[in-house]
């Protein structure tokens, strides 16, 4: 947690001269399977929880689904050529579990694996390092029907699936992420219900979070046994959590939210334990009876890298009578045991998601993880912003997104200069896509997607990012 002080200029770190990143710094961009692939029923793919959720009335904006998305399943070679034109050194993509293992159990679907074989081969042919994420939220629906992530058995099924993918791609993929943002899977999917599968139970959310991490640990062990040279990690979405004032009540509110947002995952994965204060905060929704002997040793299996997704800061205050928390990630059911903590808006610039722009918070987050938790190489596996974009004369100018990237990359350089072992950066996202419950109404991409024609138009931020990669640094301000 940080002190309740506001940065002098939100989203901006003035560093003056040109900044050069270390040799070999890995420049990339990221996507997720359900958000871009489409082909929802082709070649043996079966429904995931996001297919079911998006096809349920009232769950997504305007009933949008990922049935077609960016049609990447059919347009992948062209998309990889576009990555090469931008100069990407790495591409972080996720594998669709129900495309590879329909139903979540049993033999692999070779047609599904063949698609990812083609993805990897295409990337390597263009000298782009594949960075594979095994789980970006698309749990096979039959596993949800059997209990989902709150059920312990799902962790074992995930390890089996990881082994199938490793058997097919492990000879050509060096970097592996087990889970993307387990906080979202657990607390948005099973707590607030604003993400798939749309359940609302604090105890289920806590159990889901634990079993996600158990599945991570089991998958790491399986991958390590079969591919000892693989670079294995997990990606966590982390936030600096700031009390709204120095008052003891606000400081305690920040402690509680920091526990749920950050330490719930950092401590088991990197320390092999749950914080005592977090367990006390959650005692009304969980007695942690689902945690069995040996679980935390599995969860804390040694890693090679740690991925960090960073978007914004949480500023919180103690409960106030009659105060209602805001929607989405600030909704009370996202925070079991701390539902009455208030999230405070500071009146600073925000993105189209209403997320405050706070580049200095990235420095705080990276320094904290390195100082308090690990010497592992760190990678920013997602960082980006949604803004309203428009095509004018066949071009898309997005100065706000460009400025967001610039500020956060300058923050990343500050962290490196302070000794943080930051080794790479993945912009979110390569292209506009299905933004979960927001459907196609929010655009994060560096590449504009016309969803009617499926035309791709690189935005000005893409051109700028290509220049950053080419020079391995940032121009002077």
List the SSEs and their pairings:
Elements: E1 19-20, E2 26-30, H1 33-36, H2 49-54, H3 72-86, E3 90-94, H4 97-100, H5 110-125, E4 129-135, H6 141-145, H7 153-169, E5 175-180, H8 182-192, H9 202-226, E6 231-237, E7 241-243, H10 248-271, H11 276-281, H12 295-299, E8 306-309, E9 314-317, E10 342-343, H13 360-372, E11 378-382, H14 399-417, E12 422-428, E13 447-449, E14 456-458, H15 460-471, E15 473-474
Parallel strand pairs: 2-3, 2-12, 3-4, 4-5, 5-6, 6-8, 7-9, 8-11, 11-12
Antiparallel strand pairs: 1-15, 9-10, 13-14
Give an overview in words:
- It is built from 15 helices and 15 strands.
- β13 and β14 (456-458) form a beta hairpin.
- The chain is globular.
- The two termini are 30 Å apart.
- With 477 residues, the protein is of the alpha/beta class.
- The longest helix is centred in the middle third of the chain and has 25 residues, at 202-226.
- It has a single domain, classed as Alpha-Beta Barrel (TIM Barrel), CATH 3.20.20.80.
- It has helices at residues 33-36, 49-54, 72-86, 97-100, 110-125, 141-145, 153-169, 182-192, 202-226, 248-271, 276-281, 295-299, 360-372, 399-417, 460-471, and strands at residues 19-20, 26-30, 90-94, 129-135, 175-180, 231-237, 241-243, 306-309, 314-317, 342-343, 378-382, 422-428, 447-449, 456-458, 473-474.
């Amino acid at each position: 947690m940080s002190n309740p002080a506001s940065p002098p200029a939100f989203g901006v770190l003035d560093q003056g001269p040109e900044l050069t990143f270390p040799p070999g710094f890995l420049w990339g961009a990221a996507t997720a399977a359900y958000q871009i692939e489409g082909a929802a029923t082709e070649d043996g793919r079966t429904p995931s929880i996001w297919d079911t959720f998006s096809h349920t009335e009232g769950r997504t904006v305007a009933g949008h689904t990922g049935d077609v998305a960016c049609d990447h399943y059919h347009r992948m070679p062209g998309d990889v050529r576009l990555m090469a034109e931008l100069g990407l050194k790495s591409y972080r993509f996720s594998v669709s579990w129900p495309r590879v293992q329909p139903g979540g159990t049993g033999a692999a679907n070779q047609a599904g694996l063949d698609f990812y074989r083609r993805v990897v081969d295409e990337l390597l042919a263009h000298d782009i390092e594949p960075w594979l994420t095994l789980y970006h939220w698309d749990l096979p629906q039959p596993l949800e029907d059997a209990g989902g992530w709150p059920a312990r058995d799902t962790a074992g099924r995930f390890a089996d699936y990881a082994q199938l993918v490793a058997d097919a791609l492990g000879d050509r993929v060096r970097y592996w992420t087990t889970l993307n943002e387990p906080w979202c899977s657990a607390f948005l999917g099973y707590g607030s219900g604003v993400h798939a599968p749309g359940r609302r139970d604090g105890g289920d959310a806590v159990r889901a979070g634990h079993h996600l991490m158990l599945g991570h640990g089991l998958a790491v062990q399986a991958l390590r046994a079969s591919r000892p040279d693989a670079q294995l990690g997990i990606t966590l979405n982390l936030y600096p959590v700031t009390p709204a004032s120095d008052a003891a009540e606000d400081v305690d509110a920040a402690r509680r939210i920091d526990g749920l947002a950050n330490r719930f995952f950092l401590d088991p994965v990197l320390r092999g334990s749950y914080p005592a204060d977090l367990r006390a905060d959650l005692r009304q929704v969980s007695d942690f009876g689902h945690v069995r002997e040996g679980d935390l040793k599995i969860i804390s299996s040694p890693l090679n890298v740690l991925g960090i997704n960073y978007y914004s800061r949480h500023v919180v205050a103690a409960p106030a009578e009659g105060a209602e928390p805001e929607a989405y990630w600030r909704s009370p059911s996202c925070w079991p045991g701390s539902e009455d903590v208030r999230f405070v808006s500071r009146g600073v610039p925000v993105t189209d998601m209403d997320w405050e722009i706070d580049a200095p918070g990235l420095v705080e987050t990276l320094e904290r993880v390195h100082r308090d938790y690990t010497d592992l190489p760190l990678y920013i596996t997602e960082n980006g912003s949604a803004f309203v974009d428009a095509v004018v004369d066949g071009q898309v100018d997005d100065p706000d997104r460009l400025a967001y990237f610039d500020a956060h990359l300058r923050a990343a350089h500050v962290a490196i200069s302070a000794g943080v072992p930051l080794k790479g950066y993945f912009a979110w996202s390569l292209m506009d896509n299905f933004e979960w419950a927001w459907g196609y109404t929010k655009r994060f991409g560096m590449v504009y997607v016309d969803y009617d024609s499926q035309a791709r138009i690189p935005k000005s931020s893409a051109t700028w990012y290509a220049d950053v990669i080419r020079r391995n640094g940032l121009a002077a301000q």
